[in-house]
Amino acid sequence: MFQLDIRSRKPIYEQLVEKLKELIIHEVFLPDQQLPSVRALAQELTINPNTIQKAYRELEHQGYIYSIPGKGKFVAPQSETTNDEKVKKMKQELIKLLSEAMYLGMKKDDLLSLIAIAEQSVKGGEKRD
To answer: What is this structure's pTM?
Structure first.
């Protein structure tokens, strides 16, 4: 499914959270789709099941997944209220990053081309309004 960098300074559970978020954002995992069980994913990645559980807990806390007792973990459909909060925070972070990029010499056209690349990667290149 994906690779984790054991030599990285970033904890494995954080790498796992990032990879799963990426798969959810790019719709490899669709809303309400069941995620692999903790045991199955731990076996596939050859890491401790507690690490998988910690990553799943973090994803649930962030609103990317939800759990049904006895059934497993599922990808959460995006709700407007959760998105509004996340979008507001992300806009603030983007302004900070864009300001720094411009300070370091990036041109507006460079930034716009990066936005176009990001847009193509989301939903397999499907244009969104």
So the answer is: 0.68
Distance, in Å, from the CA atom of 115 to the CA atom of 11, rounded to the nearest integer, reads 29
Residue range 101-117: average pLDDT?
Answer: 92
Q: Are 16 and 61 in contact (CB under 8 A)?
A: no
Helix (H) or strand (E) holding 113: helix 108-121
6-64 pLDDT, tens digit each: 888 999 999 999 999 989 888 889 999 999 999 999 999 999 999 999 999 999 998 89
Beta strands in 7-100 (DSSP E): 65-68, 72-75
In the block, residue with structure tokens 């796992």: 16
CA angle, 107 then 126 then 92, to 5° = 45
Residue at 53: amino acid letter: Q
* Rounded CA separation 50/14 (Å): 13
Q: Three-class SS of residue 104?
A: coil
